[in-house]
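Chapter review: from sequence to fold.
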Amino acid sequence: MNPSYIPNGLSAWGDPPLITGPQVLTNPLLNKGTAFSEHERDVLGLRGLLPPRVFTIEEQLQRTLNSVRRKQDNIEKYIYLTNLQNRNEVLFYRLVIDHIEEMVPLIYTPTVGQACLEYGSIYRRPRGMFISLRERGRIAEILRHWPQPGVRLIVVTDGERILGLGDLGALGMGIPVGKLSLYTACAGVHPGYCLPITLDVGTDNATLQDGEAYIGLKEKRARGAVYDEFVDEFVRAVKEVFPKALLQWEDFGNSNAFRLLGKYRKSLPSFNDDIQGTASVALAGVLAALRLTQSTLAQQKILFLGAGEAGTGIADLYCAAAMAGGMSEADARSHCWFVDSKGLLVKGRGDKLPSHKEPYAHDHPFVATLTEAVHALKPTALIGVSGQAQTFTQEIVTAMAKYNARPIIFALSNPTSKAECTAEQVYGWSEGRAIYASGSPFPAVTLNGQVHVPGQGNNIYIFPGVGLGALASEATEVTDAMFLSAAQTLASLVEPSDLAVGRVYPPLTKIRDVSLQIATAVADSAHRLGLARAARPADIEADIRGRMFEPTYHDYL
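The token string follows.
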């Protein structure tokens, strides 16, 4: 890794650390635990503070893996892994990378949903920053409390729409912590650059307000001018304290997500993963699925269940891709249809539509249910982003299979408990013909001797690479065109062997190479568009590869 890309005080290269003894052991970026050599133990004053035997990282790795597997439930595994991360980050990331298919569901979806619900009870040690309304007028001062001055990547939430679980207030901190762990594991962003933040503006969840273990402000969620002024001060403080930081908006409610992104995306390098990341990964899955259906974007009619930030974000990016292929904007939008809580989104429905829904209200007779909409529209693809479990019923899936030889059915709501249908249901109800992806992982299904491997349409395939590319190029803006490029890159990495078993995403074991390829495409886009503050390297891919954090121990002395 290029030492110039490592924040001051975090590098194991160059000058030795200035701290010794217990301070070394309590710094997760420096601590090697029982892997400190005999010489390091003498010079750093660690004699007597560690057991006498020196272990290799491979031996430590096996011990930690065994410990995880001995835990009886996923929350206990989550707590163990969190404690490991707080104790020894190199070992934590080595474990996650080497066993990524096993570990990602434990540190992120689906386990992180339950972890957020229980965050007040399982809270052990601060990780990240809680900035509440009490800090108004001094947010820049509060940000300077963070011990690492070189922050380059911030994931921030206000906890209003955590996964499909709703308003969890300060308990939503599990999301930015988990996302930043994925940035490091999947894209090699150095953990010292990363800062998770929760903006505590209260909560409208009465159960949390009455709960003894709730760790946030026990007051109603701020709205209107108070909220806007607070967020505006936060953005200005980030620009002042961390001028090279990229900010990812995460799990904000629909009423704020679109307008905050629109307001700040050009003044502060930022993006909303729920809108743009979800759009990119879903479009990539559709593009890969078209290789199985042997059709084009122009031949699709997509029906979405859910018209929030995720659904309309996917539709917007589909339209951008279709327009890049020669379709007019009006024609492209006519291929996207929505069912929301009030029924099919059509003109003259009678309710006032928010701005993000208006372009998709088409001329068509109103129908009240998803089932009726499927029969009326006969879509080629059905995409669920509703957060409503088991809404893709047998009748709906059977109808999709009746109207299409290979129906595309994506149940993208997280966590697993919120999925619109399971892989087993879809394959069984469609006689194995459906092309299926889900937001959280489902196991492979064997039907009539044929193995079907569901793709996981998880944003993990997109946001780490996009963030890495934006950081490497020092992009001044993260554009929608970058997310389109990311989707096209991801789709191109799906191999014929993946498609042969119905999988429309690469296996998770390839995630670091996927992130590298996406980062390269994003950085190239930033340079071509004149949005890069960094000089263009002769070989963008090689430059980014050299910047990626590798969790290995290094000699301090």
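Two observations follow directly from the output. The first strand starts at residue 129 and ends at 132. The chain has 24 helices and 14 strands.
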